[in-house]
Design brief:
The complex is a heterodimer. In chain A, about 0% of the residues lie in helices and about 50% in strands. Chain A is mostly beta strands. Classes of the chains: A mainly beta, B mainly beta.
C-alpha cells in the first residue's frame, strides 16, 4: 500500500495566521489526493479533491496544491472554526491510505 | 438526504469476530463505492478497504488481508464489514463512508461510526 506522511504532526497558530500542511506520498499518485477536516467526536468533513479542487461550500481561504508525491494544504487566514485535525488521503490505484493527521491548535 | 446509519457499539473478546452494518439511504446504493475506515482512541484515520455495492467487488488494505471481509445486501441497501481474530489494538470507531462520485474516489458522506471494543 502507498504510504502517506504529513507534517507537522501539530501546528500552533493564531487567528489570522497563514497555515501550511504538507503531505508526501512514497510513490507518485498524480493528483489523486483529498483533504479532510475532523473535529473531536465527529466524522471527518470532506474539504478538497484532486489535490486542489474545493468541495462546494468550503471557504475559499482553503487551497491545495501539488502533484506526484508532494502536496500542501494552505489556510490563508486561520479562523476560529478551523482549529481541528486535518488528514490527507490518496486514492490512486483504487486504494485509500490516509496521512497520520495534523492537529492545528490555538497558540 | 444522504444517510449512512451504522449498527450499534460492540464488545468482543480477543480472538472473536465482529460484523458492523451500514445502511444507506437517500441515493442509489449501487451507484457509489463504500469505504471502511477506522479510528483508534486518540489516533488517526486508518483505511481498511472498499466495496463496490454494484458488483460486490472489494479491495482491502494489505495489513487487513485475510482478517477483513466486506459484503453487501443490495435488497436492503446495506453494507457489512466483518473483522476476525480481534486483538486489543482493533479497539476503534469504525466508519463506513460513501464515495463522492460514481466510480472510485474520495468520500463525502460518513456514517456515525460504530465503537468496537476488544477486551478480555
Amino acid at each position: 500500500d502507498i504510504q502517506m506522511t504529513q507534517s507537522p504532526s501539530t501546528l500552533s497558530a493564531s487567528v489570522g495566521d497563514r497555515v501550511t500542511i504538507t503531505c508526501r506520498a512514497n510513490q507518485t499518485i498524480s493528483t489523486w489526493l483529498a483533504w479532510y477536516q475532523q473535529k473531536p467526536g465527529k466524522a471527518p468533513k470532506f474539504l478538497m479533491y484532486k489535490a486542489s479542487t474545493l468541495v462546494d461550500g468550503v471557504p475559499s481561504r482553503f487551497s491545495g496544491s501539488g502533484s506526484g508525491t508532494d502536496f500542501t494544504l494552505t489556510i490563508s487566514s486561520l479562523q476560529p472554526d478551523d482549529f481541528a485535525t486535518y488528514y490527507c488521503q490518496q486514492y490512486n490505484l483504487y486504494s485509500g491510505t490516509f496521512g497520520q493527521g495534523t492537529k492545528v491548535e490555538i497558540k | 438526504q444522504v444517510q449512512l446509519v451504522q449498527s450499534g457499539a460492540e464488545v468482543r473478546k480477543p480472538g472473536a469476530s465482529v460484523k458492523v452494518s451500514c445502511k444507506a439511504s437517500g441515493y442509489t446504493f449501487t451507484d457509489r463505492y463504500l469505504h471502511w475506515v477506522r479510528q483508534a482512541p486518540g489516533q488517526g484515520l486508518e483505511w481498511l478497504g472498499w466495496i463496490n455495492p454494484n458488483t460486490g467487488g472489494t479491495k482491502y488494505a494489505q495489513r487487513f488481508q485475510g482478517r477483513v471481509t466486506m459484503t453487501r445486501d443490495t435488497s436492503i441497501s446495506t453494507a457489512y464489514m466483518e473483522l476476525k481474530r480481534l486483538r486489543s489494538d482493533d479497539t476503534a470507531v469504525y466508519y463506513c463512508a460513501r464515495v463522492f462520485r460514481r466510480g472510485y474516489g474520495p468520500v463525502d458522506y460518513w456514517g456515525q461510526g460504530t465503537l468496537v471494543t476488544v477486551s478480555s
